[in-house]
C-alpha cells in the first residue's frame, strides 16, 4: 500500500512532539538536579545524590532535617504497594496504607520550600512563592476562561525565580555539574530514543482506536485556548489532523480487515455518469447503451440525506455482480454481500451500529449453505 502523505505528516508531527517532550524532560531533570546539587555542595552533602532517583529524595529531606520522614514514607509506600499486589481483600490493606501516606507527603511537599527557605537564611515568604502561585491558575481559569494558561506560565516563572533565590542567595556554586549527571541524562535520552523508534507504528495503531481519536480531538480543542496557540500553530492542529486521522483509519481498516472491499469510483470506458436525487438523499451510477436502452453498468452509489454513504456496488449489464455494501446512517458498514448475476453467491456479513460483526453467512446461488 502506498504511503499516505498527510497521515505520515501527522505521525511525523506527533513523533517530533514526543522528541520535544523528551528534550524538555531531560532539560528539566538536568537543571533541577544541578540546582539541588548546588544545595548539596553548600550543605556538605554528597553531590551525586542529586542525580540518582530515591537518593535525590533523601537528599532533599536531609536539607531540611526530615530524613526520618523520608525513610518512613519510603517504607510505607513499599508496604502499601506490596499490599496492593496481594490477592482479594488483602489488596484493600495496601490501598488503605497508601492513602494517608499520600496525604502526608502532600502536606510535607507544601511545607518543604518554606522550611528550606528558612534553613537557607531566608524568610518563609520566599518559600511560599515557590508553592502558592501553583494554586492560582485553576481559580483564574474558572473565573476568566482562557486566562489560566497565561497565569500558569507566570506562576511557573515566579516559582522558578523564588527557587533560584533560595539556591543562589549566598553565592555561586563551588563546582560544575557532577559527571554522573551528564551520564544519566544521556542514558535517559538514549533510552527514550530507543523507545521512540517504535513510536510511529504504535501511534498508527492508536489512531485506529476511536477512544484515542476522541481524546486527540479534545486535546486539540484545549490547545486552541492556550496562550501559545496563536503563534505556535496549535490552534489549527485539530483541523489539519482530521483528514490525516481519517486516512490512517481507512488504510488500517483496509489492511487489517479481510472483509474490506474497495468499490471503484470511476465509470468504465464506454459508459456515462448519472446523478439524480433519491428520496432525501442522492444517487450516482454508470450507464451503458444496450439494444437502444440504457442499463446500469459499473459502480453505483447512493447517499443518505445526512451525506453519509448508504450503499455501493457494481453492476454488470444491469445485474448486480461482485460485492455490494449497505451502510448505517452513522457511516459504518451494515451489510456486505456478494452477488453473481443478481443472485446472492458468496459470503454475507452483518454489523451492528457500533461496528461489531453480528453474523457471517455463505450463499450459493441464492441458498444458504453455511453460517456463523
Structure write-up:
It is a single chain. By secondary structure, the protein is of the alpha+beta class. It has two domains: 5-244, no CATH class; 272-371, Histone H3 K4-specific methyltransferase SET7/9 N-terminal domain (Single Sheet). Helices cover 53% and strands 20% of the residues. It contains twelve helices and nine strands. It starts with a helix and ends with a strand. Residues 1-6, 228-238 and 251-255 have low confidence and may be disordered.
Total strand segments: 9
Strand order of the largest sheet: 1-2-3-4-5-6-7-8-9
- Uncertain runs are 1-6, 228-238, 251-255
- Beta percentage is 15-25%
Short structural description:
This protein is of the alpha+beta class and 372 residues long. It is built from 12 helices and 9 strands. Strands 1-2-3-4-5-6-7-8-9 form a 9-stranded antiparallel β-sheet, with no helix packed on it.
Helix and strand layout, with pairings?
Blueprint: H1 5-42, H2 55-64, H3 67-84, H4 90-119, H5 124-131, H6 136-143, H7 148-168, H8 179-197, H9 199-207, H10 210-223, H11 229-232, H12 237-256, E1 272-278, E2 281-290, E3 293-303, E4 309-316, E5 319-327, E6 333-340, E7 343-351, E8 357-364, E9 367-371
Antiparallel strand pairs: 1-2, 2-3, 3-4, 4-5, 5-6, 6-7, 7-8, 8-9
Please name the defining characteristics of this protein.
single chain, 372 residues, alpha+beta, Histone H3 K4-specific methyltransferase SET7/9 N-terminal domain, 2 domains, nine-stranded antiparallel β-sheet, 12 helices, elongated
